[in-house]
Amino acid sequence: MPRTPDIERKTSISYKTEEKTVLRGYDLSELAEAGYSFTDAMFVMFQNRIPTQEEEKMLRYEMGVFLEHSMSPSAAGAIGVSVGRPNLTSAIAASISTFGGVHGPGAAHGYMMKKYLRRAHEEGKTVEEIAKVLVDDYMDNGTPVMGMGQPQHTDSDPRAEPIHLKQEELGLKGVYLRLQRALEKYFHARRKAEGRRYVGVNVVGAGNTALCDIGFAPNAAWCIGSVCRGFSCAAHALYNMKRGRAWAASKGEPMVQMLDLSMIKYVGPEDRKVPKQSERQKYAKDQKKEGEYKKWVI
Amino acid sequence: MGDLKPKDKKGIGNLDDPGLPFNYSEREYGTVEIDETRARFQWVSEVAYKNVHRIVSRGYDTTELMEEGYGMTDVLFVDFQARIPSIEEDQMLNYVMIMALEDGLSAPAAMSRLVAQSKTFLTQACGASIHAFGHAYGAYSAFGNRLLDELKNGNENGRDMNAIAQDIVDNNLDDESLGVSNLMLKDPAAKRMVARAEKLGVAGEYTTLMKLIVEKAQAVSGEPIDLDMLGAMGSVMMDLGFTAEATWAILAVTRSFAAGAHFIEEIERNEYRKLGQVLTPKEMYDGEADRPVPPLTERRENSKPALSTNLDEWAKAEEELKSVWGSGASIHEEIEDPSKKTGIKSVGKKI
User: Which candidate in A261, B80, B132, B192 could, as Cys together with B32 as Cys, close a disulfide (CB 3.0–4.6 Å)?
Assistant: First the structure.
């Protein structure tokens, strides 16, 4: 049986021999035997270090609170895929892949914080001063401030503020939390002054701040959050695979199903005749000339 | 909408053919009315719900869980099993997940790195890595369901663990999802995991059965074999109460964290690949020799139809196509036996 690697690469993350699997120098089996937690191993993997107890607690909290979020794009994605009854893994992969620019954009928030902290450092500003600059930069341009607002938890994400408090309780109030707290303060003040409704910090704003303060780079933080959600999406997909109806369109169910035909609302071009092939060239030219089709182009 | 008349639709292709069992041109246009006779669609879930102020999994507010000192691994028990685990169970799950996290440059890491080369989102690479967990690599579903079914059948028929283990070995010795192989002869990690489960008092009938399977398999195997990571992780996870599918999902996702690290390192240390950049040296090619493309005018002389009009022709064609690697003719996929309620599917086995 060939045991050569699937891809040839220099890597500083791990190696694996017939005797052991080694992560950043630590024998994985020894790490587990010594009583370290899975969250400890995440620090070893992404940061090449054993974390403090407080840092480990923070990550455990963050991952635990982020894991389940009921019906979000990720769970809906997993359920949508599961109704076709592919392998379970396809539903999980789809759920993780839903994390993009809007759903849990952890990396972008981290890079935003780093960008403004670097500016503060270069321009001799305090963290609090640069937070105000950040908020003004975004709001002056009509761009949503990353980490603020959640479309379902409209008057404050139930996970977010408690994450801030936990970070403070654990003595992990670093430069990122200072920046995040300050930007929230200016953000709320400015919106209030403009007569706009309250928009609270979301789990990316709070959670990613904590992850940055415990040393995770933006992409590592994004990975942690997005993949962690994969666990609960697997549960949602599994529930639907085991208890739900495949295809999600059965007329025999007491409730209208997700893919029932009546769920389709069509707002496109009117029903129309298929042109004969003999008329095709003229039809196509006329259609292009009229240009009505352009309003439907996506 | 729906103002087209049937006569407008006459004469399109074969759609007026009397062989059609319906009158195609008279079929209605327009969407289906909202069904008011049944309850409206809702996302139905036993797992979790949320409202504006709370996220609740299996009845537990997840923020309250964290504030009470529970962690991510505890939530896995809550989500998949609707229960709070004992401290020992949580410790064991942490142990298993550490061992599942990293596996060097095996398929999940390789897939993540290959996706990374195309300059895409990290999440797409992590998602791709999950696909590595099929029914050979990470065969937790096939492994676990076999143990589950055999234990159930054995208990119903009054057979003891020894007999159940012997049956499993007799029928599956060479199966990639047995949990016993020559992969861990020098690495004690799998056996240490089972020992830890026993020490923590969380080992149960699955690890007991697994140990017996190892014994029976060793007795009949012509080569040295031992418990492997699939057997250790699979049996311990099932003793922790996770179903075969939950085990499959949890361990695949666990590995995906490391796939993220490999994605990052790939970008940090290597370059993106452009379309057309990667060459395949001729030395790697063992297909047809280079040959001229026949002119289109000679198509009839050079073409070879695939149509078989009788079973002998069909069988011959099937055999011939097996020599064409990449055609799929050499792969046999077994579908579930419709005469049985359950059965283990084997996917993509080479004939």
Answer: A261
CA distance A67 to A64: 5
Cα separation, B1 vs A92, in Å, equals 39
Closest Cα to residue A251, out of B42, B37, B22, B44? B37
- What is the full DSSP assignment across A11-43? -SSEEE-SS-EEETTEEHHHHHHTT--HHHHHH
CATH value at residue A218 = 1.10.230.10
For position B241, what pLDDT does the model report? 96
- Give me the residues of A, 113-132, that contact B with CB < 8 A: none
Q: What are phi and psi of B204, to 5 degrees?
A: -140, -150
In the prediction, which pLDDT does B350 show? Answer: 52
Task: Tell me whether residues A222 and B122 touch, CB distance under 8 A.
Answer: yes
**Residue A291: its pLDDT value, please?**
93
Lowest mean pLDDT among A59-68, A104-113, A248-257, B154-163: A104-113
Residues B142/B148/B154/B156 CA torsion (nearest 10 deg): -130
Residue in chain B lying closest to A151 (CA): B52
User: Given this model, what pLDDT does residue B17 score?
Assistant: 87
Query: Has residue A171 been placed in a domain?
Result: yes
Q: What is the pLDDT of residues A21-61, one digit of tens each?
A: 999 999 999 999 999 999 999 999 999 999 999 999 999 99
Identify the domain containing residue A114 by its residue range: 51-252
Q: Would you state the pLDDT for residue B343?
A: 36
Across the range A284-296, mean pLDDT stands at: 92
Let me know how long chain B is.
351
Query: The complex's ipTM?
Result: 0.79
Q: How far is B63 from chain A (nearest CA, A)?
A: 6
Angle at B172 between CA B168 and CA B176, to 5 degrees: 125
Q: Which DSSP letter does residue B324 get?
A: S
Interatomic CA distance for residues B294 and B298, integer angstroms:
7
Edge-to-edge strands of the sheet including A26-27? A14-16, A21-23, A26-27
Pick the more confident residue, B338 or A138.
A138
A90 to chain B: nearest residue by CA?
B131
Dist CA A24 CA A267 (whole Å):
55
What kind and span of H or E run contains A231? Answer: helix A218-243
Work out how many domains chain A is built from and give that number.
1
User: Which amino acid type is present at position A13?
Assistant: I
pLDDT at B307: 85
Q: If you measure CA to CA, which chain B residue comes closest to A255?
A: B39
The pLDDT assigned to B244 comes to 95
Chain A segment 143-172 residues within 8 A of B by beta carbon are 152-156, 158-159, 162, 166
Q: Residue A214 has which token pair?
A: 């415990």
A145 within a domain of the structure (yes/no)? yes
d(CA B131, CA A81): 14
Alpha-carbon distance of A13 to A15, in angstroms, equals: 7
Distance from CA of A121 to the nearest CA of B (A): 25
Residues of A19-44 as b/e, b for ≥16 C-beta within 10 angstroms? ebbbbbebbbbebbbeebbbbbbbbb
* Residue B339: predicted pLDDT: 55
Q: With respect to residue A270, please indicate whether it lies within any of the assigned structural domains.
A: no
Q: What is the pLDDT of residues A172-230, one digit of tens each?
A: 999 999 999 999 999 999 999 999 999 999 999 999 999 999 999 998 999 999 999 99
For residue B98, the chain A residues in CB contact (below 8 A) are: 28, 31-32, 36-38, 40-41
Q: pTM value?
A: 0.86
Regions of chain B with pLDDT less than 70 = 1-3, 334-351
